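Box 3.1 A note on notation
Throughout this textbook, protein chains are presented in two layers. The first layer is the amino acid sequence; the second is a token string describing backbone geometry. Keep the layers aligned when reading.
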Amino acid sequence: MSVKPPVKSIKTASTPAAADVRTIKKYPNRRLYDTQTSSYVTLAEIKKLVMAASPVVVLDAKTGEDLTRSILLQIILEEESAGVPMFSEAVLSNIIRFYGHAMQGHMGSYLENHVQSFMDWQSKLGESSPALSPEVWAQFMQWQTPLMQNMFSGLANPSQNVMAQMQEQMQKQIQKNTEQLLGVMGLRT
């Protein structure tokens, strides 16, 4: 016997229309309920939805709190724990170091933009050669590793310039704010 919870949907400017979003409810017993299919689902099934580019939102069944990020992080953790991990320890350590850092807000958008650029590039490459199997793509990508490294090292240099410019702007803003604060306090020299 399955209980049908009421459907709550979320719509923001950055998400697809609420009707297009697959709503999953997470219950206190940790079970995940797909409101579209009226059935319980697993993390593996949510992963399949994500892989199919289906917009998904996971909500706490009691509070309505958005748990989507938490569920996506669980899927990533499972993927990283099984098979061949995508992130090295060095990459994970560097990501952790950005938490609490002045550049934390910029790091997320930086990563998002570069991952999106890679996805766009991969999509264009796939459109030009749709008959290739995943195995053939893997062999092609392995052969292309030096080319890929050169391509992405080219991306890194402009990115380093952007980061340096952002740091310079932040330093100027901090200096300006400090001077204003000292002026308000009557300590300006």
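Residues 98 and 107 are 7 Å apart (CA to CA). Residues 89-143 form one domain.
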